[in-house]
Amino acid sequence: MNDADVKFDDRNGEGPARSRDEEERTTAQPPKDNYAPDGFATDALDETHMLLAYAASSGINIDPEVSEAIARARAANERRNWNADIEAKFWPAKSKLSLSVKPVTVDTLAAGKFGAAAIATRRYFLSTVILAAIIVPISIVMFINTAVSNDVRDLLKENDAAAIAVHEQLVNYQSALEQGTRTTRNPADQKGNPVNSPGISEALLSPNLVEKLAQFARVSRQLFAESRVLNFFVLDTAPEPWWASAGKDDSGKDITRANLELDVRAGDRASDGFPSIITQGFEKLATYQDIRSFARQTQQMNLVIYGAVTAYVLPVAYALLGACAFALRNMAAQTGTKTYQPSYSNRARLIVALIAGTVVGLFNNFTQGVSVSPLAVAFLVGYAVEVFFSFLDAFVHTFESVRNPRALGVSASA
């Protein structure tokens, strides 16, 4: 074809002009091996967009090849000219991107996860408040109960010793008074000499009997009052002495007050309606026996009831509280690093804490070498159940070595 032919073709709109139009149409149409990405690849592209945004906002360095491969894949997806070469470069880039932002994942970055974290935090917060509302009042009652019970024990110990001394002194004083009466009637022996009876010396040596009886009665009153407090802690299940609610006698005398208080008008002998100091002393000893029986009964009932609470209720509550503390701490850390993901592990941890708090008191050597209270141990096993599991595994290993050391050695060598 000569130049004239070419000009002819150009003049008729054919030749090189036609070739350019065909080239443009060919470029505008995708090649035959291009295809639209499937839904799985589209979801993966959306995930990479979220991970790239997090990496950029967090200052995480991303390999340019990774971002370029993802950008080309996004562009191919929008133009619907996805092909095997783009997909082959996209998936390794996504893998490298996920590794770069690890432990953050698409699931932890999802908008709903923050709402789920807030709901879970609120749930554990309410659980903590409920447990605290149970533990704090019980702990206060246990503290008061223990203090009063120890005080009752000390008062019993004090008055038990005082009762023996007062009884002996009352007997000697009574004997001295009787001997003094006989001496007054027969003041001299056959030779006319005055009789120096030992009873008179005992009487002279007992000027503080009233003071001792007053102290004895005071301790008895205090013991009775604190025993009533212990009885209140067990819902007044222990019966009080009969005179505690007897009211007044026919003469208008308060029977309860008469049994608890020493009549200061008492003298050596009863006169003008006033009792003798000896009668008062023996009455106060009898009253103390009633108070002592009542105090021992309330002590025993408090020991049984609150001992069970201390051994089984409070350890479980403290273990659950420890599990809640761990869950809240873990969720706070994960929310701050955007790594929170809903899981049943925290609920399982609560169940394990419940079991551990129930049985931890059965192992006396759990805190060997560490001086902590049993309730602190319960909180610890709830907060770190792995410690309790490690102890159980070590205990089982020791038990197996004791029961069958030969089999244990064979398994270890294998």
Fold and architecture overview:
This protein has 15 helices and no strands. With 414 residues, the chain is mostly helical. α3 (39-58) runs parallel beside α5 (84-101) and α4 packs across α5 (84-101).
Overall pLDDT metric: 79
Largest sheet: none
Report the C-alpha radius of gyration, rounded.
47 Å
Number of strands: 0
> What's the SSE pattern?
HHHHHHHHHHHHHHH
Structural class: mainly alpha
Number of helices: 15
Q: Pick out the low-confidence regions.
A: 1-18, 23-28, 188-205
Rounded to the nearest angstrom, the distance between the terminal CA atoms is 90 Å
- The oligomeric status of these chains comes to single chain
Defining key terms:
about 425 residues, about 0% strand, mainly alpha
In short:
This protein has 414 residues and is mainly alpha-helical. Helices cover 74% and strands 0% of the residues. It is rod-shaped and about 140 Å long.
